[in-house]
Amino acid sequence: MPQLAVGAVLGVLLLTACQAAPGASHDEERPATSAAVAEVTLPPTSGRFDYQLGAAYEPAGGLDVVVRDATADPAPDAYNACYVNGFQTQPGEDDLWLDGNEDLLLHDAAGELVVDPDWPDEYVLDPGTEERRERILGILGPVITGCADAGFDAVEIDNLDTWTRFTEPETGLIEQADALALAAEYIDVAHGAGLAIGQKNAAEATTEGHDLGFDFAVTEECAAYDECGSYTGVYGQHVLQIEYTDNLPQDFDVVCASADRAPLTILRDRDLVGPGDGAYAYEQC
To answer: pTM score, two decimals?
Structure first.
């Protein structure tokens, strides 16, 4: 389990790897960020991409870009992004948060713990004060640096968009400014460890996320919700796009033909299972 303190002072180095994608002028004039930056490598924009949070596996022909859970090993000879749930708890980690850290979890107006209704085994973190954010970082910061130690190239931080889903004090409230403040802390830790960091979802805040220091984006279902341009318009070609078979209102061929889809776009099954499972699905544009 991650330790409860982060003792390292993060070095601030020059970001040299963030080169503009052809035709992406916004990258050429990338604004200065408030986050610490380091030498990082961005994901390739071509090759075979897979999103393997449910099961890690090696497909025939290998991989060029892959996202795997922080508990998995990186894939050989590929660009590896490490999944970290930065704004909600992971299933099976209740003791870590409930034993002495329950005040870091979101509560509703009645004082009850808030869970994600779509993922009822995940509590929602509460970044509402600087003191809470620092303690959350003390728990999850070592997970991020552990990704670097394991050999990952990048990290994606899930559930940044909690402020769009928990909007009322009665049911639990997260302010956008607080979520972005915690995101900035994660960016500092990732860059200090030499990792690129991807903004996960939150189409409403791609400009703010880019300005904070996110290096690329990971988007789920942007074609289903007609918001892919919100990502590619800000991050250019450095977007990893995942669509799901259970929520695709158009043929995948139509998604692939879209002018604003990401260069690396795939269709996966919702649970991201491995090829040996009957529910497995995978296509790439």
So the answer is: 0.86
